[in-house]
């Protein structure tokens, strides 16, 4: 009872800046992180778009006036939804079939099947993580581009690579006692500000890629087979094409776009 009263008081102190009432279905703008009712901010975005003759790809926060690219909502545990603003497919040619395939991977659960393909415990026991992986930087860039749907992610990639290299240097010391859990915690902390709800799964995906020892194309093929096993062969035809043409270009995706009236 006391906790409910405290929540009500908090809502009164922090109302939605648009309707000035208690926030319903919390939603955040992705850059400034100001909180609104989802319907309020979605309708605001539609209203602002209607004032311009050309499509708008950013939205000024009605509270602080900073530019934002998307509305984040339904944040529950490790999952969230994202509504992008008027993305034009012709403006995002960098998003390839490989990006599309990798983003789809985050919406299925082939973890058990793919872990069976590789000996994870042996990888850590033999300290193979100390060996450099020449494909890691390119794989990380594609992975983060797929998750954020943004092209320029070099800063994020170098930040995460720096964390991995720091862990590797420390473990090259003879008496280092840092564990797998330490590695995952380090990467989680580095990636969390950028990937938010997808961070935990992203850390597991990094481990799988490192353990596999495969190049990007071979790893994708193994992963696709595992996805097929989990989904009983129900794999989108674009994924099959991707294996034939890994570098083919694909228009920008709209995975979370919704009509704000719904």
From TrEMBL:
Domain spans labelled RING-type: 16-65
Coiled-coil region list: none
Family matches, as Gene3D superfamilies: Zinc/RING finger domain, C3HC4 (zinc finger)
PROSITE patterns on file: ZF_RING_1 (PS00518), ZF_RING_2 (PS50089)
InterPro entries: Znf_C3HC4_RING-type, Znf_RING, Znf_RING/FYVE/PHD, Znf_RING_CS
Highest rank taxon of the organism: Eukaryota
GO molecular function: zinc ion binding
Pfam family, one: zf-C3HC4
Keyword list, A-Z: Metal-binding, Zinc, Zinc-finger
Keyword Zinc-finger: yes
Name under which the protein is recorded: RING/U-box superfamily protein
UniProt source species: Thalictrum thalictroides
Lineage, top ranks: Eukaryota, Viridiplantae, Streptophyta, Embryophyta, Tracheophyta
